[in-house]
Specification:
The complex is a heterodimer.
Chain A: E1 5-8, H1 10-22, E2 26-32, E3 37-41, E4 52-57, E5 60-65, H2 82-85, E6 89-97, E7 103-107, E8 115-120, H3 122-136, H4 143-151, E9 153-157, H5 168-171, E10 183-190, E11 193-200, H6 203-210, E12 215-216, H7 219-234, H8 245-251, H9 256-264, H10 270-274, E13 281-287, E14 293-300, E15 310-311, E16 314-315, H11 320-339, H12 349-352, H13 360-379
Parallel strand pairs in A: 2-8, 8-9, 9-10
Antiparallel strand pairs in A: 1-11, 1-12, 2-3, 4-5, 6-7, 6-14, 10-11, 13-14, 15-16
Helix pairs in contact in A: 3-4, 8-11, 9-11, 9-13
Chain B: E1 4-13, E2 18-24, E3 39-44, E4 48-53, E5 64-69, H1 73-78, E6 86-93, E7 106-112, H2 120-128, E8 136-142, H3 151-160, E9 164-169, E10 179-180, E11 197-202, H4 205-217, E12 225-228, E13 244-245, E14 248-249, H5 250-253, E15 256-258, H6 259-266
Parallel strand pairs in B: 7-8, 7-11, 8-9, 9-10, 11-12
Antiparallel strand pairs in B: 1-2, 1-6, 2-5, 3-4, 3-6, 12-15, 13-14
Classes of the chains: A alpha+beta, B alpha/beta.
Chain lengths: 385, 271
């Protein structure tokens, strides 16, 4: 029987990619784009951003050369795997006026090729599960998400070097991968070694690993990986205090903190377009020039967009204050009421990609502090505002 | 979820910008048996789709009745449809008015403008089983006398003496000798027992606010008040996110809510 833990080297990872491709998967993973690591087709390890890392801070992202040949020596780029499971633009159906009186609706066919995701960070896996719950857990499940996610092969990479805006430890989504992946890799990189520890999590994963050039992993290898993960857990770039957060935000829906963040927020929707769980979409109905053929497209939308709350000739959420509040209270509070889970996985993308560097973890602190100082003010006999 | 193509069977012009469409299902279509207060998504070929409440009890032949006011691109196309035209229908969606809980109770229906449309099936139900209920009142406000919907039905309901029907207009014109003023003023003199009445309220949010206030002043508990709310419903199946109202999704948790369940949300501007 194949051991549940093996070691592979770079050629082993190439073999893994080749095996997945040979089994019919479209293999997608991190690649070097222009000034950012983006997700794309991966035919071998040469396509990975080998020897690169990403420097991330609030409103700041830069690629830097590493002094080693790490395969996964960076964290997250602006893309999440959401773009493949729940595409930014997707045709839902099309309809044509035929020669007869009837209209023929053509539903979109499902993709032929199943997807394999390589280098999936644990927070991303958590995001996929959250989206699965949102999109397929209700009375009207989305068939395309169910189909794509149901068939996807997930190769996780556990995080040994968290980024500057990471806070998965606070959201309990990382840096270790749970059971919602087929294989979990940990890169073991030292002066005299460069291996990947492969932990098998599913029978499907086991079957793939069986054909790879691999060595058995020793207890020492596993211990090395665990130490690295423990160090990562202790060195997150950010932390978010989630204690009582659902009620905190419900109590403080009129906090002055919303006005303060709105003074900086540009309502540009960057945060929602990089978020791996944001699921809001709109539909566009179009016709061609002949007027005989119509299509319905679904595309990502954002609660920061003006038209998002448009009804019967007017807007509900005029102010940036109300839109930022909608986004953050939904993500961290209402999501629990709706789906029994947080909508935040602590990936930190919204912090990195905010052009003015608004930090969701600081904004939660700000709401806590306002509440605290308001109640102190009350107890000393003052009146708030 | 793709639409089912219904055919316009009859167009009834209610006012200058409101029509009532009667739609016939295609042969072999799965039956659409909506409950009062639910809505359908109506699609106009190539133009778009809008949520429209269902304004009649289901018929045996599966016909649908929708009363539409022309406001935007899609609704203006809807009110221009002719007999024989085709409309895409998805639905029914949403939580209905709890008509099953009305047995033995007084009922007061408070509506403004097009808000009467989703309550018409409730009134049809109340009249069909009239003896099952206590006192029933319909209080209805329109902008002007020319904006009153279902005029013949209103008169017939009133003349039947089965229910109290009172209407009012915001602005009078010409030879109007009826009430002038907001609909919520009618609440103070409506006949009902505050201890055993249920209120159904539908109209603009500002009307709902003052209606609830007036009902409270009559000694009613808000746990007996139901309101139909409105947000931007795009997908109607709970995941486009547009119709969120605090932690609720209007399309699946609403549009009908027991007022005390949403009262904390109702107080918040721009929610």
């Amino acid at each position: 029987m194949t051991p549940t833990r093996v070691l592979i080297d770079r050629s082993g990872l190439d073999a893994l990619i080749a095996t997945l491709a040979a089994q019919g998967y479209r293999v997608l993973g991190p690649t070097l784009g222009r000034d950012a690591i983006v997700l794309g087709d991966v035919a071998g390890t040469d396509d990975l951003p080998v020897g690169w890392t990403d420097e991330q801070e609030a409103g700041h992202y830069r690629l830097r050369r590493r002094d080693d040949a790490a395969l996964f020596g960076y964290v997250l780029g602006p893309h999440s795997f959401k773009r493949f499971l729940y595409p930014p633009r997707q045709r839902l159906w099309s309809v044509s006026r035929g020669s007869g009186p009837d209209l023929e609706v053509r539903a979109e066919p499902h993709d032929d090729r199943p997807l394999a995701f390589l280098g999936v960070r644990p927070c991303e896996i958590a995001a996929m599960r959250i989206q699965e719950r949102v999109l397929t857990g209700g009375e009207f499940p989305d068939p395309s998400y169910a189909d794509r996610y149901g068939r996807a092969f997930v190769v996780a990479v556990q995080c040994t070097e968290p980024g500057g805006t990471c806070f998965c430890a606070s959201m309990r989504t990382g840096p270790r991968a749970g059971t919602d992946c087929d294989l979990a890799l940990t890169e073991l990189l030292g002066p005299d070694r460069h291996d990947l520890l492969v932990e098998v999590r599913t029978p499907r994963g086991e079957q793939i690993v069986a054909g790879l050039p691999a060595r058995e992993a020793t207890d020492a290898d596993v211990a090395t990986a665990n130490e690295a993960l423990a160090r990562a857990e202790a060195s997150m770039g950010r932390s978010l205090d989630t204690e009582g957060i659902v009620e905190l935000l419900e109590r403080n829906i009129e906090s002055p903190a919303w006005g303060k963040v709105a003074d900086r927020c540009l309502a540009c929707a960057n945060c929602t377009s990089v978020c791996p769980t944001c699921f809001c979409t709109t539909v566009e109905d179009t016709t061609d020039l002949t007027g005989q053929h119509a299509e319905r497209w679904r595309r990502w939308d954002s609660c920061f967009n003006r038209d998002f709350s448009f009804i019967a000739g007017s807007l509900i959420r005029h102010s940036t204050r109300s839109r930022y509040r909608q986004w953050m209270t939904h993500k961290l509070s209402a999501w629990h009421r709706q789906f029994g889970t947080s909508g935040c996985v602590g990936c930190g993308r919204c912090i990195t990609w905010c052009p003015v560097g608004i930090d969701i973890t600081h904004e939660v602190d700000s709401i806590r502090n306002h509440e605290r100082s308001a109640s102190t003010f009350h107890t000393v006999g003052g009146r708030y505002r | 979820m793709s639409p089912v193509w219904y055919r316009v069977h009859r167009v009834r012009r209610e006012t200058h910008d409101v029509v009532t469409l009667e739609l016939t299902p295609p042969e072999g279509a799965p039956p659409c048996s909506p409950e009062p207060g639910q809505f359908n998504m109506l699609y106009v070929f190539g133009t778009g789709e809008v949520p429209i409440s269902i304004s009649s009890l289901p018929s045996d032949r599966g016909e649908l009745v929708h009363t539409v006011r022309g406001v935007g691109a899609v609704t203006n196309k809807l009110i221009a449809l002719q007999r024989g035209d085709v409309v895409g229908v998805r639905g029914p969606f949403g939580r209905p008015w709890p008509v099953g809980e009305l047995r033995g109770r007084d009922v007061v229906v408070v509506t403004g403008g097009i808000g009467l449309a989703p309550l018409r099936p409730v009134l049809q139900h109340l009249l069909a089983h009239r003896k099952t209920f206590g006192h029933v009142s319909l209080l209805y406000g329109a902008r002007t006398p020319y904006d009153l919907l279902y005029r013949n039905e209103l008169l017939a309901w009133r003349d039947s003496r089965e229910i109290d029907v009172e209407w009012t207009v915001d602005r009078s014109s010409g030879v109007w000798n009826g009430n002038v003023g907001v609909v919520t003023r009618l609440i103070s003199r409506a006949t009902f027992d505050p201890e055993r009445v249920t209120a159904f309220v539908c109209g603009p949010e500002i009307m709902i606010k003052y209606a609830i206030e007036a009902l409270r002043n009559r000694g009613m508990a808000t746990s007996n008040c139901y309101v139909s709310m409105e947000r931007n419903m795009k997908c109607a199946v709970g995941f486009c996110g547009h119709c969120q109202y605090g932690p609720t999704f209007m399309c699946k948790d609403g549009p009908v809510f027991r007022f005390d369940h949403i009262e904390p949300l109702f107080q918040i501007r721009e929610l």
